[in-house]
Amino acid sequence: MLDKNEIKKLNHLRKEAEKEKKRRRITEPRFTFQMDSRTKKITISYSIPVDGGLDEKNNRIVRKKQTKIYLKNVYVDDVDVILNNIQNYADEILRDINVKYKSIGNDKDTLHHWQRVYTENPKRRGNIEVSENTIRNDYSAIQDLIDWVSQFKPKYLNIWNWVKDGRDVLLEYFKYRQEVGGKRKKWSDGGVNSSYRRLRAFVNFIGEKVEGFPQQLLNKMPIKRTKVKTESFTSMEMELIIQFMEENKENPKWLWFIPIFKVLLETGMRVSEVVSMKIRDIDVKERKCKIVGKGKKERWVYLRSNSLWKIIEKQIYDEEGKIRTDTDWVFWSYYHQPQYGIWRLVERKHKPINTSGVQHKSKDMFRELRLSDKLTTHSTRRFFITEMLKKTNGNIPLVAQLVGHNTWDVVRLYTKDVVDENMDLNVGLFE
Predict the structure, then answer these.
(1) Do the Cβ atoms of 83 and 20 come closer than 8 Å?
(2) Per residue in 3-14, pLDDT tens?
(3) How far apart are CA 94 and CA 134, in angstroms?
(4) Average pLDDT over residues 290-299
(5) N or C: which end of the chain has fewer CB within 10 A?
(6) Which is it for the CA torsion 339, 344, 349, 354, positive or negative?
(7) First vs last Cα of the chain: how many Å apart?
(8) Confidence of residue 421 (pLDDT cuts 50, 70, 90)
(9) 314: number of Cβ within 10 Å
(10) Is 94:100 a contact under the CB 8 Å cutoff?
(11) Which residues contact 329 (CB under 8 A, 6 or more apart)?
(12) Which helix (H) or strand (E) is 83 found in, with range?
């Protein structure tokens, strides 16, 4: 309970506050000052809208509920401090009321709605079009967040509830995925980083499209960045691989795989880019191929070493020495399958070789050679970057262009022993 002196001071504060409101022409929102009987600190009391459900005609019912703001280290005698900040108090209360109104029953204010908007149209900004793979991965990342929020924080299915403490909710989500796990396993730092980048872009998109929603709400959060892996094959591992490919180049089990793996090593292309190579994109005169990489970025990949060009020639010319017209693909789907003690050719010229098939076959080779379990087909790309930096005397812009990196930052991480003056555009392993 307040004593008589405290009540008198509080009434004086309220009277002065009303005068200041009139002087500043603050008519909305309505609020009054109170004193906490225990701490003696000043609070601001006002009403906020809350969802009252639907009436019999399915109209939204909006009710009023009293709430308070506790002013930090402000007491009844601090009249001047309160009057000087009264406009700030009014603005803060108005923002809170607006957010509460927007959080009541509007389907367009849900994460589900904005997930659809964000992933159904590949042109998110201007005429820049994102790839199908990006859309698919973005949808998956947002859906995983929606699933978790639906289970543990259902009120955050409404985007306006993210305004106040959405950053804390997102950190709680990542912590859960790392400690308890996702659909299959616990997340690594890399998994969290990847999800964060996609969700940050998604929420930034909402901020650009929705009036009053804060922009860059999830920027600069304390998310651990994953270290870019630059290690690749050791010289001994590469010798074993070269030896293996030479010994098995006529072996039906490895016949389709070895040319593709050589192309990966010699060009630094991603597996998805190699299997997507089309005959019509080969420039025979210049010995190069137009590649559409991540984000639909186009670049030229050079096929100038003689051994590499022999592989391409064998794929794009038929037995009569004419450009093939029976398939669109440089590496169409074909492999040998053991049956009754003999190898039977399985060939589908209407489709390319599957990306996962190349990845699994690479793992088979690594296991057979007892190489490191950490090696993948992406190790060929790292190998290319390292070797090309040596061959071009550290020409980072050129190597970044060859492998399709927008910035030089990743390529710069590989600059360790750059000593060679050659400007060849292939590694030349098989010359």
Answers:
(1) yes
(2) 999 999 999 999
(3) 38
(4) 82
(5) N
(6) positive
(7) 93
(8) very low
(9) 9
(10) no
(11) 275, 277, 278, 279, 349, 351, 352, 353
(12) helix 79-84
What pLDDT score was predicted for residue 126? 81
For residues 299 and 356, what is the distance between their CA atoms, to the nearest angstrom?
Answer: 23
**pLDDT-derived band of residue 149, with 50, 70 and 90 as boundaries?**
very high
With a cut of 80, say whether residue 103 has pLDDT above it.
no
Q: How far apart are CA 271 and CA 359, in angstroms?
A: 8
CA dist., res. 197 & res. 414, Å (int) = 24
User: H helices within 210-354, ranges in order?
Assistant: 235-247, 257-267, 271-275, 306-316
Contacts (Cβ under 8 Å, ≥6 apart) of 331: 256, 259, 260, 274, 275, 277, 315, 352, 353
> In angstroms, rounded to a whole number, what is the distance separating the alpha carbons of residues 385 and 127?
32
Q: What is the DSSP string of 341-380?
A: TEEEEEEEEEEEPPHHHHHHHHHHHHHHTT--TT--THHH
Q: Is 284 helix (H, G, I), strand (E, B) or coil?
A: coil
Categorize the per-residue pLDDT at 60 as very low, low, confident or very high, splitting at 50, 70 and 90: low
The answer to whether 29 touches 6, Cβ cutoff 8 Å, is no
pLDDT at 87 over 70: yes
- Rounded CA-CA distance 403/381 in Å is 8
Residue 54 has φ and ψ, to the nearest 5°, of -115, 145
Q: Dihedral sign, CA of 123, 128, 130, 135?
A: negative
Distances (CA, A) of 315 to 186, 260, 277, 309: 43, 11, 11, 10
CA–CA distance, 379 with 227 (Å, rounded to integer)? 15
Strand order in the sheet with 60-75: 32-35, 41-54, 60-75
Enumerate domains of the chain plus CATH numbers.
4-102 (no CATH), 107-209 (no CATH), 238-368 (1.10.443.10)
Q: Which of 230, 197, 193, 226 is nearest to 399 (CA)?
A: 230
Closest CA relative to residue 376, chosen from 235, 237, 242 = 237
**How far apart (Å, rounded) are the C-alpha atoms in residues 167 and 230?**
32
